[in-house]
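User: Run a structure prediction on this.
Assistant: Running it now.
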Amino acid sequence: MGFFKTYNKVDGAVNRGYARWGKCIWGSLLAVVLAYGGWLIWASVWGPPMGPVTLIIHSEIDRPILGFSVNGVAGANSSAHDKNNPYASGPGGSTCCGSISGNKAEVIWTLSTTRAQYDAGLRKETRRVVMPLPKRKREENYLHVYFFPGDKVRLWWGTGFVSPKAEVILEHTD
């Protein structure tokens, strides 16, 4: 019978506590839910763009790119650009999904070689450049990364796999 006496004492204490503090407990829970709901509405209507980013590689380099990253988010690889192929300048491979934010972009890429370039003495090289990250607007979830000869890199936010206009691309040159 000692268990049931103890149980009744605990039950009575819980009931007295709930009678005294029940409104405060439910009010606090309601305040947390309303604050979270308010933040969700603010973030979806007026908040800054955020969320996953798809990286799309474009390459005008005559060497294959084994892979690249922007602020630690890995991108795809690309074959060597062929100037005689009119279809070689479209969007390259894409990778999803990472989070890229901030004002600076650290772009790291690894250049490989074709067989002829390897026979001529070229070897694998890793390049790195830090440049300004363009401002991202709502619904721009695609970061296009363009590689040009001479370690030139261009970045552009877009809403899809479309190629950008030259006026909206930020260019980095050494």
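Residues 2-45 form the longest helix (44 residues).
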